[in-house]
Amino acid sequence: MIRLLLLSFLAVHLFAVENTNALIHEKSPYLLHHAHNPVNWYPYTPEAFEKAHKEHKLIFLSIGYSTCHWCHVMEEESFENVKIAALLNKDFVSIKVDKEEMPEVDVFYQRLYSRLTGRRNGWPLSIILTPEREVLYATTYIPAQDAYGVSGMETILPKYVKLFKEYPQKIAGIVLANQRRIRESGEKREVSDDQNISGAYVLRMQKRFDKIYKGFDRRPRFPMASYLRLLLDIYLLNGDKRAWKMVHETLEAMATGGIYDQIEGGFFRYTTDQDWVIPHFEKMLYTNAELIPLYARAWLLTGNPLFKKVLDETIAQYHQRLEENHLFFGATDADSNGGEGGYFVYRYGDVDKALKKADFNRIQRETLMEYFDITEPGNFKDDLSNVQFNTGFDKAPEGVEKVKKILRQMRQKRAFPFVDKKIITSWNAMMIKALLQASVCDSRYRKDGLKSLDALLHKNYKNGTLYHYSIGFSRPEHVAFLEDYAFLIDAVLEAYAQTYEERYLDLAKKLAKEAKQKFYSGGHWYLNQGTPRVSGRYLDKYYTSPLPRMFHDLLTLASLTYDVALFHEVRKMAADEKKNILTAFDKSPEALRLLIRLKYGDIILKAKKAELLAHKQEIAKVHYPFLLTKSEKADLYLLCNMESCFFYDKNLTKVMREIRVKE
Description:
Layout lengths: L1 H17 L10 H5 L7 E3 L2 H10 L2 E7 L4 H11 L2 H10 E7 L4 H15 L7 E5 L5 E5 L13 H14 L1 H17 L12 H12 L16 H14 L2 H16 L13 E2 L7 E2 L2 E2 H18 L2 H17 L1 E2 L2 E2 L2 E2 L2 E2 L2 E2 L5 E2 H10 L4 H10 L12 E2 L14 H13 L6 E2 L2 E2 H14 L5 H17 E2 L2 E2 L2 E2 L11 H18 L2 H18 E2 L2 E2 L20 H16 L2 H19 L6 H12 L2 E5 L1 H6 L1 H5 L6 E5 L5 E4 L4 E5 L2 H6 L6
Helix pairs in contact: 5-7, 10-11, 10-12, 10-23, 12-13, 12-17, 14-15, 17-18, 17-19, 18-19, 19-20, 19-21, 20-21, 21-22, 22-23
């Protein structure tokens, strides 16, 4: 028996060694996850591309991330498939990219994919390249075999190998056709009149707004925090009730729907349906970080306890599950407990049994499960239900909190989803800003945010070099991208707004200077320093675009430091990019906010530090989105802009009445 066990152990060990590829030396959890595939993967390095060129082989480029459900599916179906691995190993150099580790590579190829296909991009991204890195074929998930009218890996790979080896003229034709399509594609719509761009944006978003289920577009349905943020700003500027209605209804729909984890808190990345019921069960740090400030502002405007509850639960979930040494992990997996969403979903019979054990009678059990949308057929798949609140109830039935506790206890018996423990600078900075802004609802979040900022700077800002991410105890290696600088400066400026400590302004200025040196060249901003050099764009995708965020940072710095030269530099940058911003303006809300902000102008409220800190919540409730605050040794409250101070008084209430739109 011992001999048999020993042989089994050796067999497993030898199999693992045999199926170890070049990814075994990487630090990315996603790359390490693929290190034992039978596919002979290489990381995205010059050596991999040189190998393809030297051996005259096609390149199969696969981009994904560790918590991506469809990446797991494609791995299981194709990359662990010995037959498909043999096809790849014989005629391709296969390169695997973690899009969170190398966002510039992901953005570069996602843009190519969108231009070639006209489709919304996603992951896994699958690209076939020539040895010279010209695109032959681009798609997302590919099944192993042909299915549902879609070609599978077993068809696609031999097809391009045959073309490449036997019909080089056809390959050249495909390359030229793709180059032309990439060159000629792009958004064609443009706004000719930008005088009432706020109104135009509201009208465009009304057309995209789902009046039944709320939110924008069809499916998959993302929260799109930057869309809501601009609509909220427009409402605060001019009282446009159409804008507020879309914001308010969407925040409510998400807070009661399946996109929100009703049992433990926190938002999932998106839902696969229109009515916010069935999420893609991964939780991304950036999704939650961008939604927290929206719920904080909505609570200040309405006092709706639902919004405060969502804010508190979301932050608590991160503190409890996804934080270490005051820093936040990047994401949790969509798959868990043996399947997609396994940790989160419930069977009717299991819940009924648990509630019966807790002494709920039959009518109570049925009522409560109806309220939580836990049904016998299930709302997900295989008679499983994802919890959401049934809005058909006039009020919550008795026992809701007790049921939530029982459902949490049921989860504790399951395996928690895999957590990608990368400490990504940009995403942590977003969360730090979220905590600081949430402090107007609960002052304890200010302390949390400042601790996290200190920890992030200590971890990822080493000897004057900012890094993109770190993991575990190893030193960070990948230098920062534009997004890391943009969101970190934003967080540092928010730290100043919460403390009025000059060191934060000094640090923001230092980081801004570094960012310009690294990413601004020849009148253009780039996302990265290396190759491929990727130009900055304005479209907000799954989170806010870093380029307009950087513009906002520079504008805030100019206003707070009265740097007239920087102010006019930002104005010129915005003027030069105005045409690009107004093209597809409804998909570029953060850039559009910049144009609107420049039109209306910043107002700086100046007063003693103690006065500003004592009246934080009052100031936060002011209906002017471009209000900044600055500590000043004065006995009065002053209202200023870049040109002058235009009002002052000892009475804050009187001063705040003067903070209004000045056309």
